[in-house]
Amino acid sequence: MYQLPVEIFDEIFKYLEFDKISLNSCLLVNRLWCKVSVKIFWKSIRNYNTLIACLPDESKEILYENGILISTSMPPPTFNYISFCKFLSIKELNYNIQKFFNNNQQKDITEKMSKEIFKFLIKNISSLKELTLDASIINIPFFSYPETFTYLSKLTFSSNTDPKLLYQLSQICHNIQTMYIPINDVIPNELTYLISLQQKLTCLCITQFNNNLGSINNIFYQNIPNTLTRIFIYEGSGSFVPLSFIGRCLNLQTLMLSFPNNNSSKSINYNFKKLQNINFSKLQSLEFRNKCPKNDLLETFLKINGRNLKELSFGKSNDSLNIIISNSCPNLKKLFITNLTLETLEKIFNRCHYLESIKICCEENLSTKDLFEIIINDSPVNFYELQLINVRSKLIPEELESFLVNWIKRIPQKQFFLNILTKDIRILNIYNENNKKIFKKYVNHFKLGHIKSR
C-alpha cells in the first residue's frame, strides 16, 4: 500500500492546529500518525499529568522536599513532549499547576512548584514562538537559556511586568513580530527600550487605562518602530493614546481604534487630526469601535485613503457619514455601519461595486421587505451576506420566499447568508413553521447564520 511522505502528513495536520478533538483522534490512528500529530498537538501544554511525569528526578526531589508528593506510578513519557511546545502562558501555567494540586498548597510552595516546572520547560523547549507573561511573576531565568527565546515571535505582557524581566528580553528577543501590551500604572524605561529594538515588529495591540503618565507616555510611543502593518488601540475611560506615531507607519494595512463613549469628543478629534492628511497607501482595513472622530476629519481621511480600503467598520455612524463612505470607498468588500437609511443603502450598493458583505446596526425600524427588494435590485454581483443587529421587523414567510425566488435567479449564483443579532428573537418570528419550511426548501441557496439575543 502506498504511504504518503511524512512531510505531507505534517502539512495536513498543521490545519488541525486549533482543533484539539481531531488532533487527539489522529494520535490514535497508527504510529506514524501519532508521531507526526503529537508535535502539533503539544504546541501548547495539553496534559499536566504528562507534564509532571516528564520532570527530571532532581525537580521531583525538590518538590518532595517541599511536601509536594508526586505519584511514582505514572509511566515514563512516550515522547519528549515538552520539546514540541511553542506557546506558553505563565499565568495559565500557574493557574493549572494550582488546579492540578487541588489548590491545597501554600502560596510559597506553589511558587516553588511553578518556578521548578517553568525552569524545566524553558530548558527543554527548543524554540518558543509565543509567550504570555504574568506581571505577578518575577525571577524568570531568561538569561540561563537564551536560545529558547531567540526566535520568539509573539509576546504578551503588561506594563507592570518586572522591569528586570523586560530588560532580559530586550537582550535576547529581537525577532518579535507581534506584541500585546495592556498599559496600566507605569511605562518603565525597560519597556520603551524593548519595543524600540523590535525592527521586525508588524503587529501591535495596546490597551491603555491610565492617563497620568505625562511625558513618559509620549517617549514610549515615539520609540515604537515604523515597521508596523497592523495596529489595534483600545483607550480606557479617560485615557489618552497619542496617535501621531501611527503617521510614521506608512506600510500600515490594518488600523483599529476604540474610543470609549465617555471620552471627550474634543480630545478624540484633536488626536485623530494628526492622521487625517496622511496617505496610507497600503491601508485595507479600518475600524472605529464605539465613538469616532467628527465627519469632516473622516471625510478628509477617506478622500485620501478610501479607495484602498477593503474593509470598513464604524461602531457609531450617521447618515451623513454613510454617504461619505459611499462616495469615497468604491472598493469595499465588507462594511459595518449604523443609522442606515434605505436610500443611502442604495447609493452604497450602486457605488461600491465589489461589496460582498454588509453589517447594519438598525437604530430605527428597518423594513425587511424593502431591504430585501434593494438587495435584489441594487446589490453588486458579488454580494452574498447580510448581518442585522437590533432589527425589529418580523421575517414574513411570503416576503422571505419572494426574496429567495428572485435571489436564485441572480448570475452568478451564490448562497445567501443571513445573520441576526437582536434583543428578542421572538419579535422577529423567525422560527415559525412556514419559515422553517422555506429554510428547508431553499437550503442550497440560503443559510441562516447566528441567530441570538444580545
What would your notes on this structure say?
InterPro entries: F-box-like_dom_sf, F-box_dom, LRR_dom_sf. It holds the Pfam family F-box-like. Residues 1-45 form the F-box domain. The protein has helices at residues 6-14, 20-26, 31-41, 48-54, 57-65, 90-100, 107-124, 163-172, 189-196, 214-222, 265-272, 295-305, 319-328, 342-351, 368-378, 397-407, 425-428, 433-441; strands at residues 87-89, 130-132, 154-156, 178-183, 203-208, 230-235, 254-259, 285-290, 311-314, 334-338, 357-361, 385-389, 416-422, 446-453. The chain has 454 residues and is of the alpha/beta class. Among the domains are: 1-41; 345-454. The chain has a 14-stranded parallel beta sheet with strand order 1-2-3-4-5-6-7-8-9-10-11-12-13-14. Strand 9 (311-314), helix 13 and strand 10 form a beta-alpha-beta unit. Helix 1 crosses helix 3 (31-41), helix 12 runs parallel beside helix 13 (319-328) and helix 14 (342-351) runs parallel beside helix 15. The radius of gyration is 27 Å and the shape is globular. The termini are far apart. The model has no long low-confidence stretch (mean pLDDT 85).
